[in-house]
Protein: ABC transporter permease
Amino acid sequence: MMFVLRRMLALAGVLVVSSFLVFAAMYAAPGSPENFLVQGRTVSPDVLAAIRQQYSLDDPFFVRFWNWLVQVLQGNFGQSLANRQDVGSLLADRLPTTLTLVLMAALFITFFGIGLGVIAGTRDGFVDKLVILGSSLGFAIPTFFAALILMSIFSVSLGWFPVFGSGTGVFDRIWHLTLPAIALALPSTAVVARITRTAIREERDSEHAVMARARGVPGSLVLRRHVIRNSMLPVSTIVGVHIAGLIAGSFVVEYAFTLDGIGTLLVNAVQKKDFAVVQAIAIIMVAAFGVINLLVDLLYASIDPRVREVRTR
Structure:
């Protein structure tokens, strides 16, 4: 319990520091929000001064950051400069698409990445070489290019999946997001499969596995309790890192398939210096990294009790 509490406090500190860094980067970038608001029109200095006063742009940097942080703690992410809408409402409309996309990609990475790695690690010959070749190709193909290939084959040529949009309803959304999720998960699936294969082979040839087989323990039992279980420690770390990075990489797939997720919202917000939107999405990304890393640590403790004993001291 104390370990979880310490990690939650550390996550809160990381959120504050990361939001400060993002706010500082946006503040130092060329251009200004009021220039976007006037849309290139020539306005008087009084109008510019009124705009800056309305959006508190004349306040010192640390004052603006502190005011924003206090509002976030109260559940208020501010108002978008570009859309004149509440940032919370904008995120609520777009988060379901991104979360569904990331969840589907995470399932692909977990099941196909680990599954193919286990198959290649426990089998020699053609199957092993096929998985190695497939993982090399999957890792080498950029996400955007993979999206275009999948779209061309399965949407345009075969017509199995829709080309654009995120769909409405549960099943329609899953149907629309299948190809984007595959494109997003492809490089990570290849990496996880290769690392899982290596970990399985190392554990398969380890001393304790060889001794267990020599004592007459059935091979299937050795595989489950010794080989696969022990190899999941490094694999779970890699899976967690890649799943945490899906949100940051989803904007490429969202742009290719014209999805209404937070990735495209982030790109537009950065271009327009929409501070409130950028800050909110940055907080979401950092929180996702922190939560997934916490889950990976808890998974470590369930896989290897020795990890739990060390962290409770």
Remarks:
- The CA atoms of residues 17 and 95 lie 23 Å apart.
- The chain has a mean pLDDT of 76.
- Residues 87-122 form the longest helix (36 residues).
- DSSP finds 14 helices and no strands in the chain.
